[in-house]
Amino acid sequence: MGKEIEKKFIIEMPEAFPEDAVRSEIVQYFLKPDAEFDTRRVRSRTTRDKTVLTYTEKKFTGGFTRIENEREISEEEFASLLRERDERYAPIRKTRYVYPYAGHVMETDIFPFWDKYAILEVELAEESESFTLPEQIIVIADVTEDKRFTNKSLAVRVPDPEEFPRRH
Q1: Where are the domains of the chain?
Q2: At the top level of CATH, which class does the domain 2-163 belong to?
Q3: Three-class DSSP category at 80
Q4: What's 162's DSSP letter?
């Protein structure tokens, strides 16, 4: 089992992304829960010339660390798992830009329901690890531990920008 440790921020929509950013179109569906994992999902991720299908299981362990199992799956397995879809959750559609910055990987997700805001995630090796965000990024709020901004929560209810926590 792997670990996922990431900081998450609501940011103002960037005007541009670095030239080395990889753009992908993502559609993910949440599956019915099981006894072991908080979240189960299937995802289709398409870059310029390739689509990758994955199955992911996540379990929150405290702080902002999760146990995460993710594996690539076939089209047949994707279709089979979709039969376990939890209809309480809308599919999440987003455009993701991934790029390296100052020794970390930055992932910016652009959703169709916000035109002025996006979510930036920074992958870390441990919760106490320090990092730097690109100076052109304007952070609205750190939402790392705010459950309203998980993809699963966004699949049920999208917070209005008036509800965003504000930096102090």
Answers
A1: 2-163
A2: mainly beta
A3: helix
A4: G
